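ping. complex inputs:
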Amino acid sequence: MATRAFRWLPYAGGRHAISVRLVPCEAGVTLCGLEVVVPHDPPPAFPDGCWPTCVECDAKWRAFERIPVFPRPRKAGDSVGEVRAVAKRSGGGR
Ligand SMILES: [Zn+2]
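pong. complex structure:
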């Protein structure tokens, strides 16, 4: 199973990515460069876990994990082939 290098921590009004190697009470830096001290107890899922994802952390995390940005840039008609394939598999294609 693949090990992730980062996890998400609600901090200062946003969800930031930090190294999985940071342990509670340890000081570190988020992907966007904020200095954090990992809390001893995990922050509550609500409302902290619902804070918006830090755009800069998200971009750097996606680059690290090779996950394309979402929504992906696409042209009109890009999904036509996929739609036809699904229709064919379900027996509704022409
Ligand atoms: Zn961040």
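The chain is about 20% helix and 20% strand.
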